[in-house]
Design brief:
230 residues; alpha/beta; Rossmann fold; five-stranded parallel beta sheet; 9 helices; 5 strands; 40% helix; globular
Amino acid sequence: MPPDARAVVLLSGGLDSTTAAAYARRDGWTLYALTVRYGQTHQHEIEAARRVARSLGVARHAEIDVDLRAFGGSSLLGEGEIPKDRWMAGPASIPTTYVPARNTIFLSLALAWSEVIGAGRIVIGVNALDYSGYPDCRPEFISAFEYLATLATRAGVEGRPVRIWAPLQQLTKAGIVRLGLELGVDFALTHSCYDPAPDGRPCQRCDSCQLRARGFAEAGVSDPLLSHAG
């Protein structure tokens, strides 16, 4: 690996993207964090991404606006209620919190930046085992996008294709928590809730909150975010 091996990290400020970023940093990559303001109903995750970027010492943290409210189609964009307590019944369908083609859009933006800065890796914290039913978190999607990147970019045509690295794909949420702790991640800096209170406190009932709670419980550790919230 060259001394300034660069990686573009899609950083949402959540548990998964933070752990993936810390993993890449440990492997010696210089991090360029990309956070997208896509019209989500609250800004707490943007603030969390800023905290995490500072804690990881990224070379640059870019924030970009792509307002997907122009299309709509998701409760995360303000259309309808955020579903609660789905995991008690066992989720069986793609939830309303799915944002159409979001990861495709995010990865495309990361791919463009990676060409500009000469990054060899794009890091994304998607997870295929403990996820909320989103089709764009599956390994098949990541592999397909990586192949697309070889065809759609100058770097790919010239034999320098960027790799899409999703190191958490086969981990449970508990496994991600354990890995994050091994990497020294401060999970108190992160934000996971889809429907937080105005002060950022998690609702503890949405899919993301319940997945996070289950992960910490199965890992046998307490969630510092809840401890800080009192």
